[in-house]
């Protein structure tokens, strides 16, 4: 095994494979920065180019590109409040708040360092788990995946403010997200729900236009209202000084980073949950780590732990989602489904052969994830000064540029004007939520998990009727969901007892 | 401002949930189950929020509420103007298509709204348009629809 691991490294370091990986990293770097143009889309666009490549070169190219998009996606989230990827939206809450306080460098440093830790843990999990993951994946059928979605929804309690009113608004926002998740053709009877006879809405609301609207439009309006740069009138020197501080934050909260990385890996391994879920669960877990009331109030207002959690989970999920793809040919996400197409194009069948005949290739993928992320983080740190200075650019110059980014990002989701309308509508919804003091994070969690929950509930009932409720893992997950909801209440009670 | 906005939003959500429940009541049970299971609690939660806003004490500073909206009249005027620009950009994209709307919007915003000089306005417009063309059209061949105006005139 060690021999195969080293052989995998040697293969990836061959000049041709390394060259293709660097090309992939370069492409992925920019794709991550551009909202809407996601890693999955670019993988699909680049698939035809791998026909003439050797398998190691092809996967170095594709995985190199894909594994860095989550890292650079955090950059626009932190700097402009525009999610570069659907899976980097949670970083906005605290990362952009830090940028507005003149701590863009620290936020970027934390996002990059935690992303690297997450990617390494994901890669490590991939290397270690391939031989033993089969029982885990087979334990999780539709009932367990439904309950996992419910556990995710339970994190709404952590994403809400403290107190009864905060919880009410959190669950209200979450329910609103769940409601919008029902738009589109239903999975059972095929009824077009809330589509207003519009073909565009039959497939439901796409996540990217909604996320871009709900986060970016209010940020733009607020930037215009303030009439300053993102970092306000803060001196430029302060912005980048904290980059190393951000790295130190990662190690200061190392166990939180590790835990969030493991959450990301686990969500990645579970086929069908999708990468967008991991960041919110990790954010919810990070918010739970607040020990005092003051600390808790800091989440959403620029607590670095709110950057570390999603940053780590985002990248670790990639290694995780590769596990079922390689081991069983069951893709853990859309991007992995496209990567599966790459396997087919190259004449490789995922499955047991990947653990015997192609073991070296499997480990070359692990090394690709590691090297691509290390290279990206080094490149990002080299340009951190310039990146952080973008927050001092005048609002009058920045606003039209961000708007162009927002419109292109939204439109490229489906290449349909409907995407732009969705962005504008949810931009208005997001702005009014901000005005009303309603949290936006639970809304997104509800939207992300709604469709997943409904699909798996339907399959569970159709397959097992009510007997699915008695499955041991389901019962354990019910317990976890209850614990996740009650924990913030317990924390609040303990805090008031101490006060 | 929080109070009025929250009340308005809660009423809007109640209307939305009410419509959702009404529409779902005519669907087959399988299709209606989930919308009803969410719509009814959504209506109840929105009603509770509206009542709490009307009769309860104002909430303390909200953690996790991220942005702090500005209430000054001048700021609100600026927001209204910005919203106008956003809709104008949307209209330009739909009518003229991205390749024309992007340079047009950038230049006009920078010059008229931003009050920037000619050199900066033209420079940014040219660079962004070149990046747009080079990346999205030449390299990635992403399909950007022609503007409706061109379709109406028979050029689409």
Can you offer a commentary on this structure?
The complex is a heterodimer of chains A (499) and B (156). Chain A has 499 residues and is mostly helical. Chain A has one domain (2-498). Helix content of chain A is 74%, strand content 1%. In chain A, strands 1-2 form a two-stranded antiparallel sheet. The longest helix of chain A has 27 residues, at 472-498. The radius of gyration of chain A is 22 Å and the shape is globular. Chain A starts with a helix and ends with a helix. Chain B has 2 domains: 2-55; 73-151, no CATH class. In chain B, 75% of the residues lie in helices and 0% in strands. Chain B has helices at residues 2-24, 29-55, 73-96, 98-113, 118-139, 148-152. The longest helix of chain B is centred in the first third of the chain and has 27 residues, at 29-55. Chain B starts with a helix and ends with a helix. The chains are: A mainly alpha (499), B mainly alpha (156). Chains A and B meet through helix 5, helix 10, helix 11, helix 16 and helix 21 of A and helix 1, helix 2, helix 3, helix 4 and helix 5 of B.
Which SSEs are present, and which pair or pack?
The complex is a heterodimer of chains A (499) and B (156).
Chain A: H1 2-13, H2 15-33, H3 39-46, H4 55-80, H5 90-100, H6 104-129, H7 133-139, H8 142-154, H9 156-159, H10 163-181, E1 184-185, E2 192-193, H11 207-226, H12 237-241, H13 243-252, H14 254-269, H15 275-288, H16 293-298, H17 305-328, H18 334-345, H19 359-382, H20 384-389, H21 395-411, H22 417-436, H23 441-464, H24 472-498
Antiparallel strand pairs in A: 1-2
Helix pairs in contact in A: 1-19, 2-4, 2-19, 3-4, 3-18, 4-5, 4-6, 4-17, 4-18, 4-19, 5-6, 5-17, 6-13, 6-14, 6-17, 6-19, 8-23, 8-24, 10-23, 11-21, 11-22, 14-15, 14-17, 15-17
Chain B: H1 2-24, H2 29-55, H3 73-96, H4 98-113, H5 118-139, H6 148-152
Helix pairs in contact in B: 1-2, 3-4, 4-5
């Amino acid at each position: 095994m060690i021999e195969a691991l080293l052989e995998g490294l040697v293969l990836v370091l061959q000049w041709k494979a390394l060259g293709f990986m660097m090309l992939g990293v370069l492409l992925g770097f920019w794709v991550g920065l551009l909202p809407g143009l996601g890693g999955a889309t670019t993988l699909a666009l680049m698939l035809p180019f791998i026909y003439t490549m050797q398998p190691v070169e092809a996967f170095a190219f594709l995985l190199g590109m894909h594994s860095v998009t989550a890292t650079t996606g955090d950059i626009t989230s932190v700097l402009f409040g525009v999610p570069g990827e659907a899976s980097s939206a949670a970083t906005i809450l605290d990362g952009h708040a830090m940028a507005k306080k003149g701590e863009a460098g620290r936020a970027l440093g934390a996002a990059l360092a935690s992303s690297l830790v997450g990617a390494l843990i994901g890669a490590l999990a991939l290397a270690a788990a391939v031989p033993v993951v089969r029982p885990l994946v087979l334990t999780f059928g539709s009932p367990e995946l439904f309950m996992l979605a419910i556990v995710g929804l339970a994190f709404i309690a952590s994403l809400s403010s403290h107190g009864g009113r905060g919880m009410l608004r959190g669950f209200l926002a979450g329910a609103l997200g769940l409601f919008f998740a029902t738009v589109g053709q239903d999975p059972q009877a095929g009824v077009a729900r809330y589509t207003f006879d519009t073909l565009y809405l039959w497939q439901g609301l796409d996540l990217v236009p909604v996320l871009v609207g709900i986060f970016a439009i209010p940020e733009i309006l607020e930037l215009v209202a303030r009439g300053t740069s993102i970092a306000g009138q803060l001196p430029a020197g302060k912005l980048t000084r904290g980059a190393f501080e951000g790295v130190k934050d990662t190690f200061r909260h190392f166990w939180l980073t590790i835990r969030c990385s493991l959450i990301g890996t686990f969500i990645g391994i579970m086929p069908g949950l999708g990468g967008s879920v991991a960041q919110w669960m990790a954010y919810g877990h990070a918010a739970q780590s607040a020990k005092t009331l003051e600390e808790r109030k800091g989440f959403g207002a620029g607590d670095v732990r709110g950057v570390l959690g999603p940053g780590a989970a985002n990248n670790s999920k990639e290694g995780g989602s590769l596990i079922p793809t390689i081991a069983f040919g069951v893709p853990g996400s859309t991007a992995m489904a496209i990567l599966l197409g790459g396997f087919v194009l190259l004449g490789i069948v995922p499955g047991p052969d990947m653990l015997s005949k192609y073991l070296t290739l499997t480990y070359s993928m692990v090394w690709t994830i590691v090297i691509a992320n290390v290279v990206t983080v080094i490149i990002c740190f080299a340009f951190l000064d310039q990146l952080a200075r973008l927050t001092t650019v005048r609002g009058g110059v920045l606003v039209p540029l961000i708007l162009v980014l927002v419109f292109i990002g939204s439109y490229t989701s489906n290449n349909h004007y409907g995407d732009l309308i969705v962005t504008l509508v949810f931009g208005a919804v997001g702005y009014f939520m901000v005005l009303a003091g309603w949290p936006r994070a639970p809304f997104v969690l509800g939207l992300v998990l709604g469709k997943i929950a409904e699909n798996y509930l339907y399959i569970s009932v159709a397959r097992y009727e009510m007997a699915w409720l008695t499955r041991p893992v389901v019962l354990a997950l019910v317990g976890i969901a209850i614990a996740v909801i009650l924990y913030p209440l317990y924390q609040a009670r303990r805090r008031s007892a101490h006060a | 401002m929080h109070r009025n906005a929250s009340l308005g939003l809660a009423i809007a959500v109640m209307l939305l949930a009410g419509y959702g429940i009404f529409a779902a009541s005519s669907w087959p049970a399988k299709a209606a189950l989930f919308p009803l299971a969410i719509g009814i609690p959504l209506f109840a939660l929105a009603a509770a929020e509206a009542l709490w806003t009307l009769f309860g004490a104002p909430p303390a500073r909200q953690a996790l509420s991220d942005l702090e909206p500005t209430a000054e009249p001048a700021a609100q005027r600026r927001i209204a103007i910005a919203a106008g620009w956003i809709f104008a950009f949307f209209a330009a994209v739909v009518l003229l298509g991205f390749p024309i709307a992007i340079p047009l919007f950038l230049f006009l915003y920078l010059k008229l709204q931003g009050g920037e000089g000619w050199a900066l306005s033209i420079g940014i417009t040219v660079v962004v348009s070149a990046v747009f063309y080079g990346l999205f059209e030449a390299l990635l061949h992403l399909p950007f629809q022609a503007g409706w105006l061109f379709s109406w005139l028979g050029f689409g």
